[in-house]
Amino acid sequence: MIYLNKLFIVFLFVGLVMAGSIAEAHYPCGTHYLTPAGENAVDAGEIRWGGSTQYSWEWGDSVDAWNNLGAVNIAPDNIYTYQDLTLGDVDNYYLGWWGAYDYDYFGSDSLTLNKYYMDGGSYGNRAHIVSHELGHVH
Q1: CA-CA distance, 84 to 76, in Å (whole number)?
Q2: What is the DSSP letter of 13?
Q3: pTM of the prediction?
Q4: Is residue 26 part of a domain?
Q5: pLDDT confidence of 77, banded at 50, 70, 90?
Q6: Which among 14, 15, 20, 51 is placed 20 to 30 Å from 58, CA to CA?
Q7: H-helix segments, 22-122
């Protein structure tokens, strides 16, 4: 009986953690979760990013589009700046999303693109996903 109680608590904890971790994911079916106000990667009017993605063309076009708006400067990280955002890819059907922004209070935020879904989209669709996720970043 004690084992079952502990097992229940573990499953409850895992469920709560998973529910919190998808709070900012974006699903291809259209379900949308908002990033809370003030939780973004903007630091002194800019977002410095590092990492990489196989969708570098889509990333570059999306960064250019956001930079042209003039509200914030998105630029690569260098040795003189703090990396505000880490860019990366995953390949996982079970995640259920094309792209996700994850705010990290203590460190670098992340923008992750899911190759499983992204590879099935057109260039325009992939660029739209990247631009959309960048909207959550600032």
Answers
A1: 10
A2: H
A3: 0.73
A4: no
A5: very high
A6: 20
A7: 56-69, 115-118
33 is a domain residue: no
Which range of residues forms the domain containing residue 77? 41-137
Helix (H, G, I), strand (E, B) or coil at 63: helix
Is position 21 within any domain? Answer: no
CATH number (domain holding residue 54): 3.40.390.10
Count of residues making up the chain = 138
Look at the chain and report how many structural domains it folds into: 1
DSSP, collapsed to helix, strand or coil, labels residue 87 as strand
CA-CA-CA-CA torsion for 27, 32, 37, 40, nearest 10 degrees? 20
According to the model, what pLDDT value does residue 19 have?
Answer: 39
Q: pLDDT tens digits for 126-137?
A: 999 999 999 888
Question: How many Å apart are CA 97 and CA 6, to the nearest integer?
Answer: 31
For the segment 22-57, what is each residue's pLDDT rounded down to a tens digit?
333 443 434 445 555 566 778 788 999 999 999 999
| 10: three-class secondary structure by DSSP | helix
The span from the CA of 115 to the CA of 43, in Å, is 29
Residues near 26 by beta carbon (within 8 Å), at least 6 away in sequence = 32, 33, 97, 98, 99, 100, 129, 132, 133
